[in-house]
Backbone:
């Protein structure tokens, strides 16, 4: 580049979902949210909670793009975040150094942030557990990064293979992290009740002894299956 870019490029204001919609979505596990979005929406399977006992969260995504081996944008996002936000950091899936550590997690907790999510790495496991804040990362390494930029905050990113925009809803539990695009909130809320109802009904039948799904049994009786013996 002929000239150096700004250290941070920041979008401070973006639409947010209502508290009522967040409350409805908070009742669902990540699998239910995915089912309400035609089976998609989860970040890469490697992105898991550092502390499995502190994994459940939901909030509004505040996006940031750090690039590999840098976390200036994450620290900047802490300053701009509102209580209940989830800082989602795209680190190009870089595994050489950690972009989240215990000090950052503790400061995020003090700021009232709901969770930290990155497709990069974390470090200081014991301190993160002590911070009692959900932190999701690709893995753990003691290696440390720098805070030099350039980075972006509040702009669209791709994290864990999924497009995320500031203002989307992001939720996590033991299974992983799911993004619900803000533009789809109303349809997901509408479908969620049906998904949960159907799940409960099926599990009730399984509890009563169901061993084969009706649709599978019917398929196996049909001409669409060719038996060799």
Residues:
């Amino acid at each position: 580049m002929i000239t150096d870019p700004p250290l941070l490029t920041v979008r401070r204001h973006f639409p947010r979902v209502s508290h009522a919609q967040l409350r409805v979505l908070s009742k669902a596990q990540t699998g239910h949210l995915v089912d309400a979005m035609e089976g998609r929406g989860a970040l890469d399977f490697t992105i898991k909670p550092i502390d499995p006992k502190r994994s459940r969260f939901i909030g509004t995504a505040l996006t940031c793009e750090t690039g590999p081996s840098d976390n200036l944008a994450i620290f900047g996002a802490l300053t701009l975040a509102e209580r209940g936000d989830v800082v989602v950091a795209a680190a190009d899936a870089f595994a050489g150094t950690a972009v989240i550590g215990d000090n950052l997690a503790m400061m995020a907790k003090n700021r009232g942030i709901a969770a930290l999510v990155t497709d990069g790495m974390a470090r200081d496991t014991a301190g993160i557990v002590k911070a009692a804040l959900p932190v999701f990362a690709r893995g753990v390494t003691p290696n440390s990064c720098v805070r030099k930029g350039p980075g972006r905050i509040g702009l669209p990113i791709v994290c864990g293979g999924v497009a995320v925009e500031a203002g989307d809803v992001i939720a996590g539990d033991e299974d992983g992290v799911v993004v619900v695009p803000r533009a789809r909130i109303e349809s997901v809320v509408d479908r969620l009740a049906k998904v949960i109802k159907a799940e409960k009904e099926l599990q009730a039948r399984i509890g009563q002894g169901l061993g084969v799904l009706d649709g599978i049994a019917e398929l196996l009786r049909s001409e669409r299956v060719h038996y060799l013996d």
Notes: The first strand starts at residue 8 and ends at 10. The domain at 8-196 is CATH 3.50.30.40 (Glucose Oxidase; domain 1).
